[in-house]
Design a protein that fits this description.
This protein has 5 helices and no strands. The protein is mainly α and 131 residues long. The chain has one domain (3-123).
């Protein structure tokens, strides 16, 4: 193997390591945002879009669709997702969240993000669910 090929392989591995580190950071930050019950309006748009992409999978892969359904139920129970499907990013971060997040946060970790419909209708104010 030539010196250029070895150097190119190292650059490729460094690039992949950086991508994995970025995915790990995004997963950790998403876990923190959910566990500290930070409202969606205060999330980084990239993470908000990745989470939307994780639960609103639009592809044809049945395994990924099952992971998306599982994550949706795990985060929000029977409540409708507060995440806007149009904001969904179908990228690597969405794939990582879809694959790992449900195993790392407690059931219902996203319920604080779901607007309380009946309270808003009664009082005329917008509110969020407190878990």
């Amino acid at each position: 193997m030539s010196t250029e090929a070895i150097a190119g392989e190292r650059i490729g591995m460094n690039f992949l390591d950086a991508l994995v580190d970025g995915d790990n950071s995004g997963l950790s930050e998403t876990m923190r945002l959910l566990s500290t019950q930070v409202g969606l309006d205060r999330w980084d748009p990239i993470l908000r879009g990745a989470l939307a992409g994780a639960v609103h999978y639009g592809g044809t892969n049945r395994r990924e669709a099952s992971k998306a359904d599982r994550l949706l139920r795990h985060l929000f129970g029977d409540e409708a997702s507060p995440l806007v499907e149009d904001d969904a990013y179908g990228d690597r971060m969405a794939d990582r969240l879809r694959a790992d997040l449900a195993d790392l946060v407690p059931f219902g970790a996203g319920l604080h993000l779901v607007p309380v419909r009946h309270a808003a209708a009664t009082t005329g104010t917008s509110s969020t669910r407190v878990v």
